Amino acid sequence: MKQVTILSIESSCDDTSAAVIRDGLLMSNVTASQKVHEEYGGVVPELASRAHQQNILPVVDTALKRAGIDKNELSAIAFTRGPGLLGSLLVGTSFAKGLALALNIPLVEVNHLQGHIMAHFVEPSEQYRQTVPSLQGIEIQHPHYPFLCLLVSGGNSQIVRVEAYNRMTILGQTIDDAAGEAFDKCAKVLGLPYPGGPWIDRLSKQGDSTKYPLAKPNLTGYDYSFSGLKTSFLYTIRDMLKARGMTTVDELAERIPKLKEDLCASLQKTIINILLGKLKKAAKDENISEIAIAGGVSANSGLREALIDYGHRYQWKVYIPPFSFTTDNAAMIGQAGYYKYLDGDFCSIEAVPYAKTRI
Ligand code: KG4
User: Fold this and answer.
1) What would the DSSP string read from start to end of 188-242?
2) Which of 105, 176, 188, 311 could be stapled to 227 by a disulfide with Cβ–Cβ 3.0 to 4.6 Å?
């Protein structure tokens, strides 16, 4: 039987990524991250699109070469259609369309958020494992349907009930900022580089999470809110500055030992408690004990540890994706695209990207 070989392309934000999946096994996954945004403290959409244009050809070429696959062997091209930054999505979408037309093969559109959840089903080939030391010798567990997925990234915070790769229901989501946004914006207040999530994660390890009590939202149901927490974090610092007649966090940090570490630990702990509190409620109400996390924030070490702890306490079977599949990557898009290809779920050449959408 002919092998099914999917090239996937992800360009929804500031990572240009391409992957090859052959018969359900990941052969390559190449990502070019964009450093250009660091000095601005956040992603600048116009610069992101330009960088995607520069990166896309070498990234796709490298993904094919590392997989040892010629473009003429491809069965289909899967691409992220949305949600994301329109200019960024346009680059990946146009490239996918052009290549699919040139090779006369089908196009498969993938929803970025579904892609994050499908990261749990990526099965790296032996060849790919050889290139990623953290994947060597580990067995990746795949969740069983139905499961709940806490999807937490820079743009989304959702609890999703997953019935099948193409049947998902959002039980709750943020009504304002995403968890990743809260990490990044609070990190910016502390003068930490962008993206701030990994920095807060690192500093938290040396901090006391009980030092600075921060506001928690009081929403019923499964929806999240992080804007009040952000304000509370900002006001905590503002009040300390005012009390000492200072103007910058760095001045304050010179006087207060472990200031940044304690603030980071307090913030991280509060975000984790908010996220897992709602997840616990959803798991109980839906009577589901298969629990997964996905998205960039799922790389957070405190969240991972807390989820494992909840798993022990509430008899959940917990699924945490390998680090390389948590932040934006094309492997997860290829996995969703592979399933769609097998179902003959192709999209028209006229498909346009979308900035916003629901699962
Ligand atoms: O999924 P992702 O790569 O992009 C989006 O689709 O948004 O997520 C990026 C987000 C950023 O907000 C980043 O700060 C956060 O994931 N992030 C983390 C960690 N690693 C990445 N947040 C907390 N702790 C981390 N270790």
Assistant:
1) HHTTPPSS-HHHHHHHHTTS-TTSS--------TT-B--HHHHHHHHHHHHHHHH
2) 176
How far is residue 81's CA from residue 319's CA, in Å, rounded to a whole number? 26
In tens, the pLDDT along 315-340 reads 999 999 999 999 999 999 999 999 99
Q: Residue 110's closest CA among 126, 127, 92, 128?
A: 92
**pLDDT confidence of residue 37:** 86
Strand 76-82 and strand 15-22: the pairing is unpaired
Structure tokens at 13: 């934000």
Q: Is the CB of 296 under 6 A from ligand 1?
A: yes
Indicate if ligand 1 lies below 6 Å from the C-beta of 10.
Answer: no
DSSP state of 359: -
Find where tokens 């579904």 sit.
Answer: 114
Helix axes 227-244, 259-286, angle to 10 degrees: 160
Pocket-testing residue among 153, 156, 307, ligand 1, by greatest number of atoms within 8 A of Cβ:
153
Ligand 1 atom nearest to 195, measured from its CA: 14
Q: Ligand 1 centroid vs 302 CA: distance in angstroms?
A: 13
What is this structure's pTM?
Answer: 0.95
